[in-house]
Write a structure and sequence with these properties.
The complex is a heterotrimer. Chain A is built from 6 helices and 10 strands, in the order βββαββαβαααβαβββ. Chain A is α/β, with parallel strands linked by helices. Chain A has 2 domains: 137 residues, P-loop containing nucleotide triphosphate hydrolases (Rossmann fold); 60 residues, no CATH class. A 6-stranded mixed beta sheet of chain A has the order 6-7-8-3-9-10, sandwiched between helices. A 4-stranded antiparallel beta sheet of chain A has the order 2-1-4-5, covered by helices on one side. The longest helix of chain A is centred in the last third of the chain and has 17 residues. Chain B folds into 2 domains: 207 residues, Periplasmic binding protein-like II (D-Maltodextrin-Binding Protein, domain 2), CATH 3.40.190.10; 166 residues, D-Maltodextrin-Binding Protein, domain 2 (3-Layer(aba) Sandwich), CATH 3.40.190. Chain B contains 15 helices and 11 strands. The longest helix of chain B is centred in the first third of the chain and has 18 residues. Chain C is an all-alpha fold. The two termini of chain C are 40 Å apart. The chains are: A alpha/beta, B alpha/beta, C mainly alpha. Chains B and C meet through strand 1, strand 2, helix 4, helix 5 and helix 10 of B and helix 13, helix 18 and helix 24 of C.
Chain lengths: 214, 397, 533
């Protein structure tokens, strides 16, 4: 169930933003990618997720659990994402947000999963609340549970703790990495903050288009 | 025989072919009537008056009952719409969407000149024999232009003024008396600005009453003659304007606006082309019962309005039957009834049978004209654009 | 290929007919005689100046009014009510408002009856003043609801409203008082959204005919009135002069807009210096907003109630404060068939316009918007007698005149133009990250659109549809031309009857024309209200 990148490169206007890089992320492993703003970190995540915006180009092969992802639309890749903002849908309740990506099935079963997720996020009884009535930390936890309930086979994290205050960050890091590790899926994280890097995790640096081990 | 045409096919050929002259004899008319049965006439007519619309609806019911013709009133805000539509259709080679048009004056001139009209047909209509062509010469001469049978007379019009008798002492019976009144009541009198039809007519009335040589009026005029002839007219207007509403710097846009301002109490006098309009407005409650109407002592500008058939009309036979019905004593009497419309008839009472004459009531109502003045024919059509341009250059900006 | 296909509905139903009809106007540009006649017209230049000043000043006034109102109310409980009031003001036809407003301020009007009285009305110059002040004020009052409605499309859009509130909170933490935060946080994105609606307001104000006939100056009138008369004439030469003047007016409007764009480019730095000049204690414009709100909506409310009275008063002479007699006859003149046809056409045109606009925005790159927006503005800027006349001559040889499809396409032209302009800002301003998030949650493109974007854009989509509906319900010229007498719509019945100048009838019909759009605007406001606020 590894996430494999083979000679992946990102281009912009005929220039290579990221030179070819190969990488294997093992199940349960979290790899952190650090680099200056505008170095192309987030663009790489977009490419892996399958929605690279039009001025950018990319080459190379990506596979997840041995299945090639090239050409697959985002919704078929089963890659979960967390962003700087929680991006909870404002027109849906917390529970509806959690149901959004969950595979179809019996209603009772799905609702049970929602309840379990809310309990795990320490938000029991919050299901019917609109997202904007929650605090930042609560929303971030809902966002993670929402992503995990879609049963992803890999996770991409784009500076997920960036907008939270320091105390919250610390508790949320534990929450996020704990859950991802428990599901034994590969995870690639982009961040500015060295403190985000999980203990013993691999750290890569992106500098002037080249990816190197720290 | 090589030409064994049945009557019916002959009539339909006539109806479809504008280049042949329509059937003249009575049996020709019977054929037209037969051809007309089942046809739909799209009657393009100005629809700004509920009374007129109700009258046309009544005519439709009668035509359907009597001749099996369906009359559709195509409601227009401005007759020029129909003129442009027919012109475009003919240019594009399409069959017409209009079968009958309510028309006169400039619109008729344009259509006649551009050969957009079917006919001559008007003087072959059986009921045309009842028209007062001698007493009302404008039934054959539309704005100094011969109708040549291309339009059938429908009703009469004559410039008429009206006011609230409770507020106005003696009505001014000439343009000079009007000037005196304006001096006495500054800011309370005005007229619509040209090219509004009624504004044009007000100026034409002033032209008729001030021009030195009236024989110039019925003929085409050139720029040089015009400039000389209108000097007294513009002298008069120059004297009049400072005493008008807004000191003659601004003018209302339409006759309807003038009427409204009269009803609201802002103006003293209104003007109309229908001698019975004031009475009609009293009936409708728009004007008070003390309303009086008059025409200038030495006569006022008058004309006739007509119906015409476009050259590309689909239902030419039914359009002729309709035009003929509109000329019938019954239809004309109903139209002249002040309670219903009040549009004066084009018929000659002396040509009617007593029973037909009895259909017309003489009853006067509050707001009726007390003494009818002589009708002065419209000046030749060439005067109008020159008057409008000269007026605009002088007072327009 | 699907990307290209997404542009087809708009191109086939709207853009191609529009371009072809505009092309029909091309010969007019080369008609030397017509240009000579137009340039020799003594009213041309003063009338053009009047058109530009009334259009320009009324747009600025409407913008200032709207901003003040929004600044006062946007975070208050009255915000929802403002939406309904604006919808009512928007639904009221221009002509109805002009009649009511005129009866309020004219010398024999209600104000004079209350303040002056006496036998004869005072000789005030309150309507049809030579400077066009009455027309400018009326336009500003009538267009404020349109700008407000266009603002709601952003301020009531779930994602954007939320972000603006957060940003205002952030500004407060940085020492900005509410007024200062509003000016520096809300106004800039608002102005960006309002630029196309503002262009419409300017173009409309500079080319309006029906209001100018009631309230505008007469010697000279605004250029639109001169053009309208020329195009209405039976003489082809006068029509041609009208077309030349139309092109001149359009060119002048384009030039004026270009000038504004240039000024804005220079003004941009000053604007940003203001934005970043530091926190100020500017309070929310409570008092000024209340005064402006009253000054803007009192005439609207009075004018509409006066129109109701006028519609049942055959006669209402000076100095009576109430009509002496009441009659319902004006209300009984409507043909039900015309009403049904109009409702059907309006509904179909609004839905097709919104659907093809959405297809366009979804499939076409943003850079192409300027072409359709430009065309939409051209469609709205040209007098309808000219543009609809071109379309009529286009449809005539192919037999589409006098048919229902022809009538529908004629209605769609202005409807789609309005919908495109109103929708472009909110639709393109949507935060696409929500779509990215949805697709990361295994939603397909279509499913993400249906489940996330559609509900979040519900308010602007419904507003655009309602505006499209109202626009369709107000079409006279294109409908009258294309119907060729074979169909009759409510506006056709109304305008032909109003040509007689009967005030009760005109008032009654204007109100009847207002009722269906009013219902639709209320429904749109109700359905579009975000439940997560």
């Amino acid at each position: 169930m590894a996430l494999t990148l083979e000679q992946v490169s990102i281009g912009l206007a005929g220039r290579q933003l990221i030179r070819p890089v190969s990488l294997v992320i093992a199940p349960g492993e979290t790899v952190t990618l650090m680099g200056a703003s505008g170095s192309g970190k987030s663009t790489l995540l977009s490419f892996l997720a399958g929605d690279l915006a039009s001025p950018f180009t990319a080459a190379g092969a990506v596979s997840l659990a041995g299945v090639a992802l090239d050409g697959l639309p985002p919704e078929k890749r089963r890659i979960g994402r967390l962003f700087q903002d929680d991006l909870l849908f404002p027109h849906l309740t917390v529970a509806e947000n959690l149901l959004f990506g969950m595979p179809r099935g019996a209603r009772a079963k799905r609702m049970a999963k929602v309840a379990a997720a809310l309990a795990e996020a320490d938000l029991p009884g919050f299901g019917d609340r609109p997202p904007h009535t929650l605090s930042g930390g609560q929303r971030a936890r809902v966002a993670l549970m929402r992503a995990l309930l879609a049963e992803p086979r890999a996770m991409l994290l784009d500076e997920p703790f960036n907008k939270l205050d320091a105390e919250l960050r610390q508790s949320l890091r534990g929450f996020v990495f704990g859950h991802i590790a428990a599901r034994r899926i590969p995870c690639l994280m982009v961040t500015h903050d060295l403190a985000d890097v999980p203990l013993g995790g691999r750290l890569l640096l992106l500098k002037e288009g080249a990816v190197s081990h720290a | 025989m090589p030409f064994t045409l049945t009557r019916r096919s002959f009539a339909s050929l006539m109806a479809m072919t504008p280049f042949l002259s329509p059937a003249r004899a009575e049996d020709g008319w019977a054929a037209i009537a037969a051809e007309a049965k089942g046809q739909t006439v799209y009657f393009n007519a100005w629809a700004g008056s509920p009374q007129v619309n109700a009258y046309i609806a009544w005519a439709g019911e009668e035509l359907s009952k009597r001749y099996g013709i369906t009359l559709q009133h195509v409601k227009l805000a401005d007759t020029a719409e129909a003129v442009r539509r027919v012109r475009d259709e003919v240019k594009a080679g399409r069959q017409g969407s209009a079968d009958l048009v309510w028309i006169n004056g400039e619109n008729f001139h344009v259509m006649k000149e551009e050969r957009l009209l079917y006919g001559p047909f008007a003087e072959d209509l059986p009921n045309f024999a009842l028209v007062d062509v001698d007493g009302k010469p404008t039934t054959r001469i539309d704005f100094a232009e011969s109708t040549e049978g291309l339009e059938s007379p429908w009703g009469m019009a004559q410039l008429t003024f009206f006011a609230d008798g409770a507020k106005l002492g003696t009505p001014p019976m000439s343009m000079m008396e009007l000037l005196d009144l304006a001096k006495a009541e500054p800011g309370r009198i005005t007229y619509p600005s040209p090219p509004d039809f009624h504004g044009d007519t007000f100026i034409k009335q002033a032209l008729v009453e001030t021009i030195e040589d009236r024989s110039l009026l019925p003929v085409a005029v050139d720029k040089a003659t015009f400039t000389g002839a209108v000097t007294p007219l513009f002298d008069y207007l120059d004297q009049l304007h400072p005493h008008l509403w807004r000191a003659g710097k601004q003018f209302p846009q339409s006759q309807a606006q003038v009427t409204q301002m009269l009803a609201d109490g802002e103006l003293l006098m209104g003007l109309t082309f229908n001698p019975n309009e004031a009475a009609n407005l009293v009936m409708a409650g728009t004007l008070p019962a003390t309303t009086v109407a008059w025409q200038n002592r030495d006569g006022s500008i008058g004309n006739t309005h007509f119906v015409a058939i476009p050259i590309n009309a689909k239902a030419k036979a039914a359009a002729q039957v309709t035009a003929n019905f509109l000329l019938s004593p019954e239809a004309q009497a109903r139209k002249a009834d002040i309670k219903l419309w009040g549009d004066p008839t084009v018929l000659d009472m002396d040509k009617l049978a007593p029973a037909q004459r009895a259909l017309f009531s003489d009853a006067r109502l509050p707001g009726s004209v007390t003494t009818t003045a002589r009708t002065i024919p419209e000046p030749h059509g060439s005067w109008v654009p020159l008057i409008e341009a000269a007026w605009l250059a002088r007072y327009g900006a | 290929m699907t990307r290209l296909a997404g542009a087809f509905p708009l191109a086939l139903l709207w853009a191609l007919p529009l371009l072809a009809s505009l092309a029909m106007l091309a010969p007019a540009a080369a008609d030397v005689a017509a240009w000579r006649m137009a340039l020799a017209h003594p009213q041309l230049w003063p009338a053009l100046a009047l058109a530009l000043t009334t259009g320009g000043l009324s747009s600025l006034l409407a913008l200032a009014t709207s901003l003040l109102l929004i600044g006062t109310l946007w975070r208050s409980a009255a915000w929802g009510r403002l939406q309904s009031v604006a919808a009512a003001g928007l639904a009221l036809p221009h002509l109805a408002f002009a009649i009511g407003f005129g009866f309020l301020i004219m010398p024999s009007g209600l104000v004079a009856r209350l303040l002056v009285g006496g036998e004869a009305p005072p000789q005030w110059i309150t309507v049809q003043d030579p400077w066009g002040i009455a027309l400018t004020l009326a336009l500003a009052l009538k267009e404020s609801p349109f700008l407000l409605t266009a603002s709601f499309a952003v301020l009531s859009r779930g994602d954007a409203a939320l972000r603006l509130r957060q940003e205002c909170r952030a500004a407060a933490t940085l020492g900005h008082a509410p007024g200062s935060a509003f000016l520096r946080i809300v106004v800039p994105p608002l102005l960006k959204t309002l630029r196309w609606p503002l262009v419409i307001v300017f173009v409309y104000g500079a080319s309006v005919v029906d209001m100018a006939l009631v309230l505008g100056p007469t010697q000279p009138p605004t250029l639109a009135v001169v053009i309208w008369r020329a195009l209405n004439d039976a003489e082809p030469a006068t029509n041609a002069m009208g077309l030349a003047m139309t092109l001149l007016l359009t060119g002048a409007l384009a030039l004026a807009l270009a000038l504004v764009v240039l000024l804005l480019r220079f003004g941009r730095r000053a604007f940003h210096r203001m934005l970043t000049s530091g926190p100020s204690l500017l309070p929310a414009p409570a008092l000024a907003g209340a005064i402006i709100g009253f000054a803007a909506f009192a005439p609207l409310a009075f004018a509409s109630s006066i129109v109701v009275l006028l519609s049942v008063a055959p006669r209402w002479p000076y100095p009576a404060l109430l009509p002496p007699a009441v009659s319902l006859s004006a209300w009984t003149a409507v043909a039900p068939a015309a009403l049904w046809l109009s409702l059907g056409l309006a509904l179909a045109a609004a839905l097709v316009a919104v659907a093809s606009a959405v297809l366009w925005f979804e499939t076409q790159p943003r850079a192409r918007d300027r072409w359709v927006i430009g065309m939409a503005l051209a469609a709205l800027a040209l007098p309808q007698l000219a543009s609809a006349g071109g379309q009529y001559r286009l449809f005539l040889p192919i037999g589409l005149t006098g048919t229902l499809p022809g009538l529908f396409l004629a209605q769609l032209t202005p409807v789609a133009a309005y919908v495109l302009i109103v929708l472009a800002g909110p639709y393109r301003g949507f935060d696409v990250r929500y779509m990215v998030a949805a697709r990361a949650l295994a939603a397909s493109r279509l499913s993400a659109w249906r489940r996330v974007k559609l509900p979040l854009l519900k308010a602007p989509l419904l507003t655009a549809a309602a505006i499209g509906f109202a626009v369709s319900m107000a079409q006279f010229v294109p409908a009258q031309l294309m119907a060729a007498g074979r169909f009759s719509t409510l506006p056709m019945e109304a305008v032909t009857l109003a040509s007689g100048g009967n005030r009760p009838l005109t008032a009654a019909f204007a109100l009847m024309l207002a009722l269906p759009p009013l219902a639709v605007f209320f429904a749109a406001a109700l359905l579009g209200r975000p439940r997560w606020r």
